[in-house]
TrEMBL record:
Keywords: Cell membrane, Kinase, Membrane, Phosphoprotein, Transferase, Transmembrane, Transmembrane helix. It comes from Paenibacillus cisolokensis. CDD domains: HAMP. It comes from the Bacteria. This is Sensor histidine kinase YesM. It is a multi-pass membrane protein.
Amino acid sequence: MFRIPAKSLHNTIFARLVFTYLVVILPIIMLGVYLYNWSYKNASEEVSRNSQAQLSAYLEDLDREIEWMEIQQYDILQDGELRKIALTWDLIDGVERKESVNYLLHRLTSIKSTSAYIKDIYIHIRSIGKTVSGAGGLYDFDAERYAAVRSEAEVGGRLLKLGDSLNLSGSMYGGNGEDEPLALIQIELDNEKLKESLAQVNVYPESGSFLIAGDSDFILASDDEATPILARYAAAEIEEGRAAKTALLEIDGRTYHFDRSVSDTLELSVVSFLPEETVKRPLNRFNLWAWVFAGTSVFAILIYALSTYQFVHRPLLLLVRSFRRMEGGALDIQIDHARKDEFGYLFDRFNQMLVKLQTLIDQDFKQKLMMQKAELKQLQSQINPHFLYNSFFIMNSLAKTGDTERIELFTNMLGDYFRFITRNGEDNVLLTEEIKHARTYTEIQKLRFSRRIRVQFDDLPSGMAHIRVPRLIVQPIIENAYEHSLEKMTQDGRLLVTFERNEREALVIVEDNGNIGDAEIEALYRRVTDASESHETTGLANIHRRIALTYGEGSGLRFSRGELQGLRVVIRITLGEEHRDV
C-alpha cells in the first residue's frame, strides 16, 4: 500500500470523493434521526396530553366529591338534634337522649354510604364528653382526635392531614362567645378507595400514579409497586422535576415520564408515571428500520470508499510517488501497467515525459550546474585586497608588541581562512564546516575591532551540523556586515549570529546594528532576487541564487530590520526528506 503524508490527506481526491458521498448520505441519515425524534416527541406530547386530561378529570371528580361532603357536613352542623344534644344533654331524659343519638347515627351512616371515599364520620361533642361515629356508634369523648383536628384546622385548608389520612372538619359554636366549639365534625377519607380511584387513572400496564397533598406532607400511591418510585420522586432535589407538569427522571437506572395536574382549591396534586420505553414502544418498528437503514448506509460508504481507493486513489498515489521520485532526481522510474482507462493514458504520458526529460537534462540542467560551479570558482578567486591589507596590518601590530602567542593564533586562523576559500573539492560542504570558516573570519575581525565591535556567535545546533550547503554562503554575509556597517561605527557595534531549526527548514541569521533605512533594505532585496541584475553576481545575489538552485523555491536570503535596528539577513534552507530527522 502506498502512503502519503497524513497532513495532505484532506487534499486528496479520495478524501474529497468520500466526503462528497458523506455530504449526500449524511443528510438522509440525519433526516431519519430527526423523524424518529420528532415522532417520539409527538408521541410523548400526546401521552402527556392524555395523561393530564385524565388527571384533571380525576381531580375534578374528587373536588365534586369533597364539595358534596362539605355540604353534608354543613347540614349536620345546622341540624337541630345535634344542637339539642350539645346544649341540653343534661336537661333531657334517657329516652330522648337515645332517640337523638340514633338520629345522628342514622344521618352519619346515610352520608357514609353515599360516598365511597368516606371511611368514617365522627362528631366530637365536647360539651357532653361524647364522640359519635358512623361506624362505631356512641363512645367516650376522643380527646386525641379532637385536639389533632383542631390543630390542623387552625393551619387552614380544605383537607386536613392527620397521620396517614386526609380529613374534612367543621365546628359548631355556642352563643356564649367561647373559643372552644361545642361540637366538631371529622370526615376521614378512605385511603384504599382513593388508591382504587388512582389505579383507574393508569392506562398502561406499567404505569402508576400517586396523590400528593400540600408540600408532599401526604403522598398516596396507587399500588405497592409505585411506592419506591413515589419516594424517589418526592425526594427529588430538582425543582423542575417536582413542580413541572411534565418531567423525565431517572430512577434506579430507568427513565420515567411523569405528568402532573394540580388542584389549587384542594391543594392536591395527582401525578402519573410511565416508563420511557413504553412511550417509545410504538416506534420500535420504526427504530428497527432506522438501524437497518443506518447499517446499510455505513456498508455503502465502506464499499464506495474501497472502490474509490482501488480505482482512483491507488493509481493516483502511484503517479504521485513516481513524480516525487522524479523530483528527487530518479529518471529511470518507468511505470509498468496494463490499464486502459484514463490513468493508463496518464501513465503512458508520464513515461514519455521521462524520456524527453532525460534528453533535455544535458542542455538545460547541466548548463545551470556548470554556471553555478563557475560562479563559485569566480567567488573563490576574489580574495578581498582590503581584508588582506588589514590582515597584514594586524600581523605587523602584533609583531611590534612582541605578542608571539597571538601571532601564532592569528597566522593559524589566517591559514585556515585562505585554505577554505581557495581549496578545490566538493562544491557542497557540511554546514558545520561552513560555520567554522565563518567563525574563523569573525575571530580575525575581532582582533582588529575588539574595542568597538562586540560579537555574539552562537553554537551550531547538533540537528543542523550534517546539512550540506554550498560553500561560502555565511562568511560573505558577515563580511558584508563589517564592510558596509560595522567598520563605519566608532563605538558600540554589535554583530549577532544565531541559528533556528524546525521540521521543514533551517535558518542561519546574521544581524548587525548598523544604520540602514527601509528603502535601502527593499532595494537590496530587489537586487539580490532579480536574476537580470548582473553586477551583483559575485556577492549576495550569488549566494541567494546558489541556495535557491540547491534547495528549491522558498530557500535563499531574506532581508529585514532586526531587533538591533540594523540589517537582518536570514539564510533559509528548505529541508528535504533526507534531513527531516537529522
